[in-house]
TrEMBL record:
InterPro entries per record: 6-PGluconate_DH-like_C_sf (IPR008927), 6PGD_dom2 (IPR013328), ApbA (IPR003710), Ketopantoate_reductase (IPR050838), KPA_reductase (IPR013752), KPR_N (IPR013332), NAD(P)-bd_dom_sf (IPR036291)
Name by which UniProt lists this protein: 2-dehydropantoate 2-reductase
Domain Ketopantoate reductase N-terminal: 22-167
GO biological process: pantothenate biosynthetic process
Species name: Aeromonas hydrophila subsp. hydrophila (strain ATCC 7966 / DSM 30187 / BCRC 13018 / CCUG 14551 / JCM 1027 / KCTC 2358 / NCIMB 9240 / NCTC 8049)
Amino acid sequence: MPSGSRDYNLTQSRHTSSPQWTLLGCGALGGVFASLLTQSGQATRVLLRERHRSTLHPGIDFTSLEGHTQLINIERGFISQPGQIKRLLVMTKAGQVIEALTPLVGQLATDVPIVLLHNGMGIAEQVVTLFPHNPIIAGVTSHGAMQSGHFVFRHTGKGETWLGPVNEAARAHAALADDLAAALGQAGWDEQIQARQWQKLAVNCAINPLTALYKLKNGELAGPRFADALQQICVEVADVMQAEGQPTGSDELLRRVMTVVELTADNYSSMYQDMEQGRETEIEAITGFLLARAASHGIAVPVNQGLYQAIKEKQ
């Protein structure tokens, strides 16, 4: 099936009768997606870890891009009693995906699609090992989100969302993008999703470690202070991408990075937010993945290596 992007007008007629979404993970982006899916009229619930069972769960306090705040009631479940899952949208941090999914091994029907929507790469292959018969779908999104309290979420930036197949079984589930489009305003299906994952990885390698280390908003990377570092990061990432069969150039990657810096100028990167809150970052799935692929090809990536070490030490 060719790549394609859906918009709300094409999908609103069918999404209300679609199967319920179960979201695993309710951090900043998970909370925003759960809110947007619910607002679009789609049946949605969140599946929480056991440690949250004793915690008070008020409704989601959601603030839209336009600044409108709304209290959203949403169904909740827990990992030990997952109930019937018809389609699973995994929105935990990259390093938590396998731990979060492991209790569901043997609990999911083999036709339940598992959509992975996290930063970084290298996780989907592990999920295929856990669920060899389920449709596994990889996703990338550039929506911005912040969590400012217990079940308090703000949508900070509208972006693109793309899904694509990790295994053969996933190819029958392109219509999932239609329902996401009804909630997000845009979503697309791309059979070559790995190319988009690499492009997103390049942006994350450039923006996330620098903003986290120097405590910056994304837009502050546009100044001359970081010009050389950003260029060197993009040169190294381009070398690895080319070795991986992903044709690109460092100038093209740098233009992409600076476009994201401009579009998200007032946002704080997810890695910055994780560092500030004392949470584990996604450095392993982002720069760590790049370093592993670089090593496999014998490519030196000293700038990215230095950023990786700095984040690990500070983390």
